[in-house]
Amino acid sequence: MIPFAHRGGALHPELEGLENTLAAFRHAYALGYRHLETDVHVTRDGVLLAFHDERLDRVTDLTGALADLTYAEVRTARVGGREPVPTLADLVDAFPEARFNIDIKSRRAAAPLARFLTDRGVEDRVMVGSFSPAALREFRRLTRGAVPTSAHPLEVAAFLASPSGRVAGRLTMGRPRALQVPVRHGRVRVVTRRFVEKAHAAGLEVHVWTVDDPAEIRRLHELGVDGIFTDRTDLLRDTLTELGLWHSVEDS
């Protein structure tokens, strides 16, 4: 079971309002997390930011759309009133031993992200995904398969609808390395034993987001999922410890 610190553990009691900050990621790393999840946007002048929203408004003391601002403007903002918005470079440099799950939040970020990962030579330390099929297609084209990617929603749908993992694998042409999905999407239960079996038959892992309930973590473990994203890094760690799994993943 791979434990992912979602935005650094956004709902941990000690991190209220500090999602996607270096303080949050340091906290998760100190707990033993070695898989850190973040989002990326790009500023008007091409700087990649570890930030979830399109705008600064919700979590910082400034306002404005990231795509309209320069990095010089963004760097004055403070998340939760005290932490700067980190660049992706800040994050990668701060945790040379960690692996990163990166969610492309705007198509404009696809090309800069591809260049960044290639220039840094960190292709083997990341998995990249996106809700946007267009953004993920562009990223895959630019990286030519050198960077592992998760499935976009249309590829997930292929696994839900296909009669077997073999058929779904053919439909998705082997592009995704993992299915990163919610337990449910509306009325549809996505993560079932059959769904996990189909993914495994196609050679894909199943990573589930975002799970903060110990009972649900145990249930997903019984279904055979391979990873869980959590905002409550304390609860996931404690539950995996009870299951005898934490020691086996702490250094993964």
From TrEMBL:
Domain of life: Bacteria
SUPFAM superfamilies: PLC-like phosphodiesterases
InterPro entries xref list: GP_PDE_dom (IPR030395), PLC-like_Pdiesterase_TIM-brl (IPR017946)
Database matches in Pfam families: GDPD
Ranges where the GP-PDE domain occurs: 1-240
Listed name of the protein: Glycerophosphodiester phosphodiesterase family protein
UniProt lineage: Bacteria, Bacillati, Actinomycetota, Actinomycetes, Propionibacteriales
